[in-house]
């Protein structure tokens, strides 16, 4: 059978990894795919570098339009990133009848519905294993491996940069700004790390996973996005004293009322495996009604780990290219005419446990006032930690862990607690998940 021809848009870190792994494991991959997969054309603005990387083994152009309109190309790999040019090229590739492989989570989380609709009309595949958690085959697991299950919740460490920063903050007792600077110097964090540290990257990935887990359209605009920039070293320390680690989690949950979709720093019991995922590694915990909890762990970024996911998609497409579209795995795991309109819940309606830290006067009655406010709002206390005031000080920190309650109750309680004369400054609120 003649080779399937691939056009690569962008030969940076992941693109060059894809080229190299495809070449190195060519025989093995052909034995699996049933025909050989050949990168026939590469588009990159840096044509010279692209030629060097590909050793003259394929055509190199600087205009990606030449790839997406080339009748000889069967599959286009989009590794440009962002929502601008990348979207135009993906839509053009689809319009020209090409299958698409993309690692672009931002594009799919924000424009996925439009892209999948166009692809369905053209009868082409859009595959995106590399868009979530790099080399971990989490899309495959959710769309296919767990297909018997009603997925109940997903909690993932899906941003390596922030997990690296949190690990360093805990290990070395350093504050966020210091660790971020070190991470940038070491090349672990981007020069502009905004999307990572503000939780946007994780929210893109959580949005994609929620969509294929619950069969709902992509709804990034409804996700709650909170990063780690405001996290204090003291909260990491107090959490540890109470037996918890703080991780930036991408969480989605199915409830009677709708879907919770949120990214925020989260306390999790230190005895959970996922609490011990350190450095830039990723891990995703998925709970299905039949299988129970399953955990997927690995490298969430990097040249060859991400290439591993890109090539898995190339093999899938190669195997299914001649199958009728209705026999392929649906884009969002559920048939497109069977997507659910279950709403994504506003944050006020989500249910979880909380960590509250407040700075108070160390005198009789303060704790009673705080606990009365919580009791009046039917918020039950799970654990408490009161620090000795420092030598000569009359103020101290109180940390309270609550049982589960609605976010709107905790917000109302905090508003009242902050008005107490004996409470100084703002109350710090973090969410806590038992993940049991
Ligand atoms: N910037 C991402 C991370 C990797 O830090 O995990 C690409 O998704």
How do the helices and strands line up, and which of them pair or pack?
Layout: E1 4-9, H1 13-24, H2 26-33, E2 37-43, H3 47-54, E3 59-61, H4 65-68, E4 75-78, H5 85-95, E5 99-102, H6 105-122, E6 126-127, H7 138-145, E7 151-157, H8 160-172, H9 176-185, H10 194-197, H11 200-214, E8 224-225, H12 233-241, E9 244-254, E10 259-269, E11 281-288, E12 292-299, H13 303-320, E13 351-361, H14 366-376, E14 381-386, E15 395-402, E16 405-406, H15 407-417, E17 423-432
Parallel strand pairs: 1-2, 1-4, 2-3, 4-5, 5-6, 8-10, 10-17
Antiparallel strand pairs: 7-9, 7-11, 9-10, 11-12, 13-15, 13-16, 13-17, 14-15
Helix pairs in contact: 1-13, 5-6, 6-11, 8-9, 14-15
The structure holds L-homoserine (HSE).
The site of L-homoserine has 7 residues, from α8.
């Amino acid at each position: 059978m003649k080779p399937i021809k691939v056009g690569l848009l962008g030969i940076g870190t992941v693109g060059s990894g894809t080229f190299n792994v495809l070449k190195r494991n060519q025989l093995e991959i052909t034995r699996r795919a049933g025909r050989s997969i050949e990168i026939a054309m590469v588009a990159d603005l840096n044509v010279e570098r692209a030629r060097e990387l590909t050793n003259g083994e394929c055509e190199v152009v600087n205009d990606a339009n030449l790839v997406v309109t080339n009748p000889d190309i069967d599959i286009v790999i989009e590794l440009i990133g962002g929502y601008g040019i990348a979207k135009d090229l993906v839509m053009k590739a689809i319009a020209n009848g090409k299958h698409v492989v993309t690692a672009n989570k931002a594009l799919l989380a924000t424009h996925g519905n439009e892209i999948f609709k166009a692809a369905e009309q053209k009868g082409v595949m859009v595959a995106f294993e590399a868009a979530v958690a790099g080399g971990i085959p989490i899309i495959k697991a959710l769309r296919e491996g767990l297909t018997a299950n009603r997925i109940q919740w997903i909690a993932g460490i899906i941003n390596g940069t922030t997990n690296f920063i949190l690990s360093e903050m805990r290990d070395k007792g350093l504050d966020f700004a210091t660790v971020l600077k070190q991470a940038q110097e070491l090349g672990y964090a981007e020069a502009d790390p905004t999307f990572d540290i503000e939780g946007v990257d994780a929210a893109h990935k959580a949005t994609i996973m929620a969509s294929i887990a619950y069969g709902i359209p992509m709804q990034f605009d409804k996700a709650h996005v909170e990063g780690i920039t405001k996290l204090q070293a003291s909260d990491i320390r107090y959490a540890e004293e109470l037996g918890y680690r703080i991780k930036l989690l991408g969480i989605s949950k199915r409830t009677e009322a709708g879907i919770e979709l949120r990214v925020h720093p989260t306390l999790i019991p230190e005895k959970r495996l996922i609490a011990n995922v350190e450095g830039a590694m990723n891990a995703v915990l998925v709970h299905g009604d039949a299988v129970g909890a399953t955990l997927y762990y690995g490298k969430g970024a990097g040249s060859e780990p991400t290439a591993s996911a890109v090539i898995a998609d190339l093999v899938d497409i190669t195997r299914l290219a001649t199958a009728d579209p209705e026999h392929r795995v649906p884009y969002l795991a559920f048939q497109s005419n069977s997507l659910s309109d279950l709403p994504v819940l506003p944050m006020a309606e989500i249910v979880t446990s909380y960590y509250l830290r407040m700075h108070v006067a160390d005198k009789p009655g303060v704790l009673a006032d705080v606990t009365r406010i919580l009791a009046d709002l039917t918020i039950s206390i799970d654990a408490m930690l009161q620090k000795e005031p420092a030598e000569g000080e009359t103020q101290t920190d109180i940390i309270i862990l609550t049982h589960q309650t609605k976010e709107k109750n905790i917000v109302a309680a905090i508003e009242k607690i902050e008005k107490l004369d004996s409470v100084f400054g703002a109350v710090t609120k973090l969410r806590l998940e038992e993940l049991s």
